[in-house]
Every structure is written in structure tokens, then in C-alpha cells.
Amino acid sequence: MKLICAPMATLSHPAFRILMEKFGGCDEYYTEMINAPTLLHGGQFEKFYINPAPVPEKLVWQLTGKSAEPMIAASSMLCKLGGIGVDLNMGCSAPEIFNSGAGCAWMIKDRTETEELLSGVHKALCDYENETGKHMRFSVKCRLGDENFTDETFFSFAELLVKNGVERITLHPRTRKEKYRDRPRWVYAEKLAELYPDISVVVNGDIKDRESFLAVSDVCPKCDGAMIGRMAVQKPWIFAELKKSTDEEKSPVDLLSVGLEFIDLVEQYQPPEFYKTRLQRFFAYYCDNFSFAHYAKTQMLNSKSLEESRTLLREYFEKVPADRFRISY
Fold this sequence. Notes:
Layout: E1 2-5, H1 14-21, E2 28-30, E3 34-35, H2 36-40, H3 46-49, E4 59-64, H4 68-79, E5 85-90, H5 95-98, H6 111-132, E6 137-142, H7 151-163, E7 168-171, H8 187-195, E8 200-204, H9 210-219, E9 225-228, H10 230-234, H11 238-243, E10 252-253, H12 255-269, H13 275-286, H14 293-301, H15 306-319, E11 327-328
Parallel strand pairs: 1-2, 1-9, 2-4, 3-4, 4-5, 5-6, 6-7, 7-8, 8-9
Antiparallel strand pairs: 10-11
């Protein structure tokens, strides 16, 4: 199975990718959601969203938007930036995204509207290939649907994707409102792979260690990829952990050095306006490695500057030195 890093708002940016690459990285990185209208209008921060560092050849551009026309036009723009392909976000269930008509809302819109988007993006990618000879993969990330989904509605939606040229479907097999409270139904990804053997199916959800990775591999042998999100933030070395055989020698992780390096990378690759949110989101997960996670999170989330974040991190490990090298992969 390919190992893939999920698209995560405020997290899937160059600083985070560079940190993971230091541990060997993964096969593909999806960008955080790129808002199509904002990209087209040249928003002041868009250059940070489309920075492909450090491995452009592993990058998948993920687009979001509430209407077809700007997403089609943005797909044409992104093709010119290289990478593996363009992915449409049809799975985000955050209320502000869904209520705007983006994300998971595309799964329950009138099918003619969704098909307009799919066929338009497919044409844009085909036109680019005809002009340049370079293929850009067309993919969609989705969920099972809304709470009233049935097998019929879900697989009908999948058929719509495939009919309109989608080459990869990444499935987070939960409904819109399930969030993370219920176990994902991985078997639906395997059913997709069985139905459509000529397309790539990636399974996403609750892969957090070797045990869960082996479990999903057992349930989904026909899927060709596993996507990991939150746990890659908590453990940027998780892909290296999954690649190692059980009898290989394990390497210790210096949790202080990794945290400080992330802060340095954010300062280098993100605008000052983004510092606070990027650090807050990262340390909300990363601090789960610490014995006193709640205390550490509270400290880091209330930090008012990069330098204060560095100081707080150092002070934590001065108080709890046993935590510094407590992880190995």
C-alpha cells in the first residue's frame, strides 16, 4: 500500500512536509484545501498555499469551492504548477465548509451540478495533457454521505465519479456527522476497489500505528493506498514507523528538537499572520506525546509568539526530562 499524508487545514503546508521528509516522508502529500475563487483572484496568501516545497513530485493539489466554474478554472491553473494531480474536496464535514456548499455538500447536491464540476475538471486536465503531454491525475476525496446514506446512494455517487473520469477515490468511510466518534467502515473502501479495479482506491480513517495499519490492510487488500492525517501530526515519523519491519532497530525521537524545528520551519515558510494558527493546530496533536499533555497543550496554545513557544517547549522538558526521548520508531 502507498502511504499518503492527508489534506489538513492549517497543517498540510511546506513546513510540515519538510519536517516529515526528515524522517523519510511518505509516497504522496495532499495540500491543505485551496479555495478556488481566492486562488483565481490572487489572494495575498495564496502563494503560501501553492508552495510545493520540498517535494513537488509528491504533491497533490486539493481544491475546495462551492460552485463548479471557479474550481474548473483553478484546476487549469494548478496543472501548470506540476505535481501528481488535482483532488476535489467532497468530504470535508466542517459546518462552515458544508453550509457554504463546499466539501461534503457536493455529495448531496443535485447530480447535474456535481456532474458539471466533475466533467469540467476532467476536461481541464485532459486539455492540459493534450497541450503538454503531461498527465495530471484526477481524484476526489469523499465520505459515505449524509446521515441518511444508503449503499445505493453511496455507490451511485461513486459511479458518477468514475463515469466522469475520476482516477482515484479516497474514502473516509464515515458519514458527515459521525466525525471521529464511530469506527470508520473500512469495508466500503474495499467494496469500491472490487467494483472499480481500474481505478485507485485509498482508505482513510483511524490509522494510527502498525497494528491499525495491518488491520486496514487486512480489510482492504485491493486498496492501493492508506491515508493518514491527525496521527501524522502527532507523530511526523509515523510513515517511517510503518515502513520498518518489526525486527529492525528502532531510532529514538528527540521530541524537543522536533518541536523546535517545526517552529523554525513555520517561521521560514509561513507568513506572520499564520504563525499562531499553524503552531496551535500542530501542538494540539503533537503534545499528546507528552506525559502531561493537557498542561503542555494549554501552554503552547496560549503562547503569544514564536519565541515564547520555543521557551515554553524548552521549559517543559526541563521540568519533565524523561519525556524528551520517550518515543522511538
